Amino acid sequence: MNDILAKINDGIGGLTTLVMNLLALGILVEVIYGAGIFGMGVVGNVVALINSIGSSGFVGLLSLVVLLSLFRGKD
User: 3-class SS at 41?
Assistant: First the structure.
């Protein structure tokens, strides 16, 4: 059972790493070329997300801390 959970955890960790790398690539492409990947405005979406977290006050700050702790992992 622990082996299955470890494999699932590794898969989710790999998927998270892939999504973060694609996000960084999308931001880089949009900054360099002025247009997003596949017609998506990555920078605008990230700015909108940050603005929505910022306007939520304490709840936004708490959710940001939780997200950062999830991405940081158990290093």
Answer: coil
Asked whether 13 and 29 are in contact (CB, 8 A), the reply is no
- Contact in structure between 46 and 27 (CB atoms under 8 Å): yes
Whether residue 30 contacts residue 41, with contact meaning beta carbons closer than 8 Å, is answered with: yes
Tell if the pTM clears 0.85, that is, is over it: no
pLDDT tens-place string over residues 7-39:
898 888 888 888 888 888 888 888 887 776 667
Determine the straight-line distance between the first and last CA of the chain, rounded to whole angstroms: 23
Residue ranges per structural domain of the chain? 2-72
> Could you write out the three-class secondary structure of 15-27?
HHHHHHHHHHHHH
